[in-house]
Amino acid sequence: MDWHDSLLDYLAASNEDSCAIRLFSEVVLSEVRSYRESISWLDVGPGPGTKTVEIYRMLQETGKLARACVLEPSRDWRRFLQARALNGEIQVCPLTLQRYAELERRGDYVPPNLVTLFHVVYSKSLIRTLTHYLAGRCVNEDKLGPATCLVIVESEHSDFCELRRRLVSIGCPVPVSPAERLRNAIRRTNLKFEEYRVDDKRCWVGTREVSKSDWLLPFLTALSIREMARMPQDLVARSVSCVHEFLKERPDGYLCVPDIALKVHFR
Ligand SMILES: C[S@@+](CC[C@H](N)C(=O)[O-])C[C@H]1O[C@@H](n2cnc3c(N)ncnc32)[C@H](O)[C@@H]1O
User: Fold this and answer.
1) Has residue 104 been placed in a domain?
2) Residue 100 and residue 149: Cα distance in Å, rounded?
3) Most buried residue among 60, 110, 186, 238 by CB atoms closer than 10 A?
4) Residue 137 binned pLDDT confidence (cut-offs 50, 70, 90)
5) Distance 45 CA to ligand 1 centre (A)
6) What angle do CA 195, 223, 263 make, to 5 degrees?
7) Does the Cβ of 45 fall within 6 Å of ligand 1?
């Protein structure tokens, strides 16, 4: 099992996909439907594409979708997408957001008016890239009509964040929550945005003992099993027991893992 498997296992154990798709339908779809221009959509980091495919169908039904493109820098996910999820209907670019933004500025790509990022913007550098991209578009592209960006990340109130805080406290170096940093960075751009809470997201972890080969620990640490094998074994054992102790506080086997969504208006 590696990071890819742990994401698939997590998606199967949670209602994340349906929560994200519902939020998109409630807060973005009617807005983009009212655009005078056709919709040019960019989904950044689709991973297995489970959300992307559903949203693609919704956008197609508007009759206004002119272009759909995903940026997926991971070769494994691209293979997965091409073989299983997308059926060649969506253009797949092997680019990071950083590289794409440079190429778009150079004129190699038509600027999209709908950008989605589901659980992608977790690092400081990606937060910086995204905010520069959105703010830069606002200044440079007077000719473009309105554009919308939907970014979803874990809420700071998620059990995952609490678990990661506890892992940090025992010396396991994991990033905690990007929510506050992302919110502040977007506020500094002066772009108009609205925040939504996805409070009903749940994840089933079961009531049995967690082990180091379960998906939960690699998922929390964003490390593959191979990378975890290189961690000091006493730290792995302490991390497993830390997670196990936390799960005792959730005897029904469910974690509450709310997200936040920011809808940013740019041009
Ligand atoms: C946690 S997965 C989320 C996958 C999917 N959006 C979902 O919600 O199920 C993060 C995704 O972001 C992609 N990613 C990571 N860094 C990226 C970057 N710099 N630019 C674009 N995509 C990136 C990864 O390859 C992966 O597909």
Assistant:
1) yes
2) 16
3) 186
4) confident
5) 3
6) 10
7) yes
